[in-house]
Amino acid sequence: MLGIPEMDADHAHLFALADQLHAAVAQGAPNDSIRACLAALIDHVRAHSAHEEELMVRCRYPGLEEHKAEHQLLAEKAIQFQRDLLTGHPAARADMFRFLRDWLALHMANCDRCLAVYLKNELAGAKPSAV
Question: Which domains does the chain have, with CATH numbers?
C-alpha cells in the first residue's frame, strides 16, 4: 500500500486481475478463458497507466518519462504474451507469470512508491482534490 487511496485501489484491482489470470492457468482453463483474463488485465493496465501518467503531468512529476517507459514495457510484454498464447508458444504461461510477478513487485516498490512520496509532499501544501 502506498497510502494514496486511489492508487491503492487501482493496484488492488490490478493484483485481483493478475490473480484471476493465474487461477485460470493453474486450473487448466481453456486458452480462450486465459486470453480473456489477459485481455482484461491489459485493458486495466492501459487505463491505470493513463491515469497515473495524467496525474504525473498535472503535478509535474520529475520521473514522468521513466515511469511512462515502465508502463510501456508492461503493455508491450503483455501484448507479446497474448501473441505467444495465440500461437501456442510452450513457455508463454510460465514466462508471463514470472514477468508479471517480478514487474508488479518491482514497479510498485520502486516507481510507484517514489511517485507516492512525491505526491504526498506536493499535497502537503495543496488541496487534497489535486490528486
Answer: 5-124 (1.20.120.50)
| C-alpha to C-alpha distances, 88 to 81, 82, 91, nearest whole angstrom | 10, 10, 9
Query: Helix, strand, coil % (nearest 5) of the chain?
Result: 85, 0, 15
Distance separating alpha carbons of residues 47 and 55, to the nearest angstrom: 12
Q: How many CA atoms lie less than 13 Å away from 52 in the CB half-sphere?
A: 32
Which residues lie closer than 8 Å to 6 by C-beta, 6 or more apart?
131
Which grid cell is 98?
Answer: 514470472
Mean pLDDT across the stretch 95-108? 82
Torsion region of 126: left, alpha or beta (phi above 0 gives left; psi -120 to 50 gives alpha): beta
Q: For 10-35, write each residue's pLDDT tens digit.
A: 889 988 998 898 888 888 888 788 88
- For the record, the C-alpha cell of 78 comes out as 503483455
Which residues contact residue 45 at a Cβ distance below 8 angstroms, ignoring those fewer than 6 apart?
Answer: 14, 71, 74, 75, 78
Which amino acid does the sequence have at 13? Answer: H
For residue 119, which of 69, 45, 64 has the smallest C-alpha distance?
64
Q: What is the pLDDT of residue 53?
A: 93
